[in-house]
Amino acid sequence: MNFSPELTWFIIGVAFLIAEMLTPGFILIFFAAGSFFAALGVWLINIEKTGQVSIFLISSLILLFTLRKYSLKIFKGSTDNEIDQIYTNSKIGKRAIVTKTIYPDKAGEIKAMGSFWVAVADREIKKGTDVVIKSQETEDGLIFKVI
Q1: I want to staple 96 with a disulfide (CB 3.0 to 4.6 A). Which of 74, 102, 110, 121 is the partner?
Q2: What is the radius of gyration, based on Cα positions, of the chain?
Q3: What is the pLDDT of residues 40-61, one digit of tens each?
């Protein structure tokens, strides 16, 4: 089976798009665009293979180096876990029950909002005592200070 050059470049472009969906690099999409530019060039003007490859490489690299940073900002999003932060902050000010005694020098455990959490306090708090979550003690949001 003999494919026309424009169809060949188009199929190569589709293959790059499929490969981009399977890899997280956000690089192959620019080579897909380069393939589509080469297909368009061959379709509009009959270009030799050397010219086709040149159009593919030049357009791919120009798109890659000019648009990748901008595209990553748009499509990658923020790496800050905003949902985790909102969930952690939702516990502050809530009531909890001490399930393991908390000592000033040793963390205990509380039950808040249906889950068990590590808790610290400035004073000893006995098991079964109602407390209020004052703050988050660690970056990971797993240890809370109670009063």
Answers
A1: 110
A2: 29
A3: 999 999 899 999 999 999 999 9
